[in-house]
Amino acid sequence: MGESGAGKSTLVNALVGDEVAAVSAVRASDHRGRHTTTWRQLHPLPGGGVLIDTPGLREVGLWTDEAAVDAAFPEIEELGEGCRFRDCTHGPEPGCAVRAAVEDGSLGEERFVAWESLRREAASAALRADEHARRAADRRFGRAVKDVLKHKGQR
User: Fold this and answer.
1) Which residues of 45-79 are buried (b: 16+ CB within 10 A; e: fewer)?
2) Count of CB atoms within 10 A of residue 24's CB?
3) Which of 36, 37, 38, 77 could form a disulfide with 24 if both were Cys (CB 3.0 to 4.6 A apart)?
4) Which domains does the chain carry?
5) What's CA 52's distance to the chain center, in Å?
């Protein structure tokens, strides 16, 4: 599996030892591959076994939850125990031990950014999977927009 134009069909041809899968040259403008394979195809391998060539993936989603993300970043969980507030989101709250660790360099910023990104994606996946929670979040967002518009009109 991989992106369109990543070279999956080229790899199939190399493993089979013959030109069994259609391939295209990379674009001259950006040196990226082109979308050539449009359906799945099974290719027998000379030494036994088979290989499936598939069209490229446009997007890969995250199938996990926030707890699993936290388990993959134990140092952030551990640092979070030192935060002033138990429900600290490691955002703008005062007394955040995680943000302090990023600022003093004891926690790499790229590691923290990766944790934040994966947490957001896991939360989004949870909302997509739970219709009731998604509707509640939509209602909260709608109320927040109305409040902003109301205050904006009072200026």
Assistant:
1) eeeeeebebebbeeeeeeeeeeeebbeebeebeeb
2) 13
3) 36
4) 8-53 (no CATH), 66-130 (1.10.40.50)
5) 25
